[in-house]
Amino acid sequence: MNTIKDKVAICGIGETTYYKRGTAPVPEFRLACEAITKAADDAGIPVTDIDGFASYSNERNDASRVATALGLPHFSFSNMFWGGGGGGGSGAVANAAAAVAAGYAKYVVVYRALAQGQFGRFGQAAPAKTISGDFAYTLPYGLMSPAQMFAMRVRRFMHEHHVEQEAFAAVALASYHHAQFNPRAVMYGRPLTREAYYESRWIVEPFHLYDCCLENDGAAACIVTSAERARDLKPKPAYLMAAAQGSDYRQNAPAHNAPDYATSNFKTLAPRLFEMAEIGPQDVDVVQAYENFTGGVVMSLVEHGFCDADAVMDFCVYENFAWPNGKLPLNTSGGNLAECYMHGLELVLEAVRQVRGASTCQVKDAAISMVVSGPMVTPVSSLILRG
Amino acid sequence: MPTEQHSAKSVLPEGLPAPQSTRDGLDQGFWDAARRHELVVQRCNDCATFQFGPEWICHNCRSTNLGWHRVSGRGRVYSWERVWHPVHPALRDACPYMVVLVELPDAGNVRMVGNLTGDARDELTIGTPVEVVFEDHQPGFTLVQWRRA
Ligand SMILES: [Zn+2]
Q: A334: left (phi > 0), else alpha (psi -120 to 50), else beta?
């Protein structure tokens, strides 16, 4: 099979300080530039070697503005992954990898910057007098925020597979546990107890406050290049074993009419991903799974084959997710819940650290590291790295 | 068939965005029917497949010969959520409220989102039978709501 397996690698990673929402001292665009220059520094290449851009979720900081601001002599690839939320986190890396493999560019930077206080908030409905299109079937009924959009799916999943709240608690508790080792994390020094999880207010049932991602300011970037070039650079390459994106049958059907509803939308993607990587889920040492909401993490782990849907209550327990002794350490930087809501690009950076041996919750002998991007949205994406 | 209902009081306060048909008229038939207190679902005139929300082409046979089919308004709760945190100023004092996803067996199991009438704190289980309630608003739009059948 002709795939990109082992042909490209992530050779540099960079991020700004992560801030609480609305507290970044500098504009979002400057954060984007800073993350990109740090990724180049980490790779040990001049920033002017960057000749391609990939992002997702309608990144505001336009590639041409970045290239102009950084004084790049030219660029030869630019690409935006369709769809919202974090569905494109791995997909943007995949697009960068495809560009490198096809020879369109040599060093493609994947980047994401957010300073939501400086623009609009994702969780807040825009005030409008009228609404038309798909949202006309939901907004007038008070179903408007991302939490409200996804709670409906998660409730149905719980019903079909006898899943209880404790599976979601396990995700939140593991993320907060890992953040306590990570000085970059917004929730560093702010541990979460099981009692505090259950006592926290409902946002929308079945989501407590701690089931929902943070909102933060910051920027993250990583640089994708060929395996040959990566081998000549200083950091240990994180080789891309596989990357896949896409969507299942009619997942965008309006007003919650996706035929297979109790899903996070990875059912057709996951087999393609593992076929490309030529491994199975049992070979994965550590997972970073996008948490817009904890319920989506559980669903995405099921759909990637880590456990059966009807065995969630046995597998999705804190002890399995928590470093260092867990069977499947999950979101080892703290992720969107406790490190920073960097739209999931911080998960890619953490997956790279794990195969470099450089995580603050380093899984022993981690050889294969996986990222799951954007459960319950469409399209979604995933990737697998090896050291 | 449920009788035409004029609810004395709307489930949620006024001030939320009012539904309008898309500029291209795709779902004009749905909102016009709701205004007449009729529940309609788009159906393919060639293969009889239901689809909701409506689209310009049938997802089953790719026909563009589509029409509106009146359905009974009886359904069952497919999923639900109880909202505690308001994200719109109009809802500041309205929490908790209940949003239901209702499956319509006589319309190919298409689903509609609405609010459940009654006390939002009452327990609700998936599968509960419900029927449509038309909730008239000024100026000139009607929401499709649900009550326990
Ligand atoms: Zn048809």
A: left
Question: Smallest Cα–Cα separation from A382: which of A286, A245, A263, A287?
Answer: A245
Give the CATH fold of the B28-148 domain. OB fold (Dihydrolipoamide Acetyltransferase, E2P) (2.40.50)
Q: How far is A90 from chain B (nearest CA, A)?
A: 29
Contacts of A250 in chain B (CB under 8 A): 59
CB-neighbour burial class of residue A207 (10 A; exposed 0-12, middle 13-18, buried 19+): buried
Comparing C-alpha atoms, which of A30, A55, A82, A131 is closest to residue A348?
Answer: A55
Selecting from 3.30.70.1130, 3.40.47.10, 1.10.3210.10, 3.10.450.350, what CATH number does the domain A8-120+212-386 have?
3.40.47.10
Q: Are strands A19-20 and A238-246 parallel, antiparallel or unpaired?
A: unpaired
Q: A182 with A188: CB under 8 angstroms? A: yes
Compute the count of residue pairs across chains A and B with CB atoms less than 8 Å apart. Answer: 131
Chain B hits for A142, Cβ within 8 Å: 12, 16, 83, 88, 91, 94, 97, 99, 115
Task: Check CB contact under 8 Å for B84 and A205.
Answer: yes
Interchain contact, A132 vs B20, CB within 8 Å: yes
A131 vs B contacts (CB less than 8 Å): 17-20
Q: Are B81 and A124 an interchain contact pair (Cβ–Cβ within 8 Å)?
A: no
ipTM of the complex in this document:
0.95
Any residues with CB less than 8 A from the CB of A256 and at least 6 apart, and which?
A138, A152, A153, B79, B101, B111, B113
Beta bridge partners of B109: none
What residue spans define the domains of chain A? 8-120+212-386
Backbone angles phi, psi at A297, to 5 degrees: -65, -50
Is residue A188 part of the annotated active site? The answer reads: no
d(CA A107, CA A121): 32
- Taking the whole predicted model, whether its pTM rises above 0.90 is answered as yes
B85 and A256 within 8 Å at the Cβ level: the answer is no
**pLDDT by 10s per residue, chain A, length 387:** 789 999 999 999 999 999 999 999 999 999 999 999 999 999 999 999 999 999 999 999 999 999 999 999 999 999 999 998 899 999 999 999 999 999 999 999 999 999 977 876 655 655 689 999 999 999 999 999 999 999 999 999 999 999 999 999 999 999 999 999 999 999 999 999 999 999 999 999 999 999 999 889 999 999 999 999 999 999 999 999 999 999 999 999 999 999 999 999 999 999 999 999 999 999 999 999 999 999 999 999 999 999 999 999 999 999 999 999 999 999 999 999 999 999 999 999 999 999 999 999 999 999 999 999 999 999 999 999 999
